[in-house]
Amino acid sequence: MRISVELRWFRRGRAPDDLTAWFRGTGGPFAWAAGGGRTRTDAYLAPPDPTLGIKRRSGGDGLELKGLVDALPRARGLGQTSAFPQVFAKWRSDTLGIDGQPTVEVTKTRWLRAFATLPEAREIRLGAGDSGEEPVGGEELPEIGCAVELTRVVVAAEEWWTFGVEAYAGERSGGSRIDLASRSLDSALRALAGDAALDLREAAFQGYAEWLATRDPRP
User: Fold this and answer.
1) What's the pLDDT tens digit per position in 180-197?
2) If I label 106, which of 10, 41, 119, 124 is the partner at 20 to 30 A Cα–Cα?
3) Cα–Cα dist 168/66, whole Å
4) DSSP letters of 53-85?
5) In the CATH scheme, what is the code of domain 2-214?
6) Beta strand pairing status for 63-71 and 86-93?
């Protein structure tokens, strides 16, 4: 099981050009161009539960389950907004399935960045693997780290975008994984601080499951 501490926002439409250019390029907190950029379609069990996401990843077997556990008591600032980080537990099942069940298909084109975060944030260059999201040069992702993403999302022919910061601590990290993931989040936020392009005030603070369960389907 993986524990993560996350901030995520959604907004209908196309991501602002300045946000996209800032996130995908170099400069500011970023030494490298973002990884990813590939498109995949995941199937989520329907009707969605706002606290539990159950999905079959594109091209994969089994299911990925991600449940909301709690929210941290102290808000964190990011760009020109702030929110209370959410704690999630994520696990995988190779025996459960959703064949024959109603699903919602979500098509994602994700641009991704990765950071080793303790004691200070250090960006890891991505771009390897079929997804373009693996580290370049054979470097491994850290046991304690943070992923930052900007993703174009299409569901029921509607275009959205999401910006997410997902800090984590692996099973071998030792100590309280929630505490370590919280410190990891703070380290990544310090690296991202002060960028004018990162304006999320018009976006809704939600996890994927809550967004799927509560999104307004009207134009």
Assistant:
1) 999 999 999 999 986 767
2) 124
3) 13
4) EEEE-TT--SEEEEEEEEE-SS-EEETTEEEPP
5) 2.40.320
6) antiparallel
Dist CA 103 CA 144 (whole Å): 33
Name the one residue in this structure whose structure tokens are 């901030």. 7
User: Alpha-carbon distance 79 to 174, whole Å?
Assistant: 31
Q: What one-letter code names the amino acid at 201?
A: R
Tokens for 78?
């990011």
Amino acid at 133: E
pLDDT at 217 over 70: no
Residue found under tokens 């500011």 = 28
pLDDT reported for residue 171: 84
Domain ranges of the chain: 2-214
Q: How many residues does the chain have?
A: 219
Position 83 confidence tier, pLDDT thresholds 50, 70, 90 = very high
Question: What is the percent of the chain where pLDDT is above 70?
Answer: 97
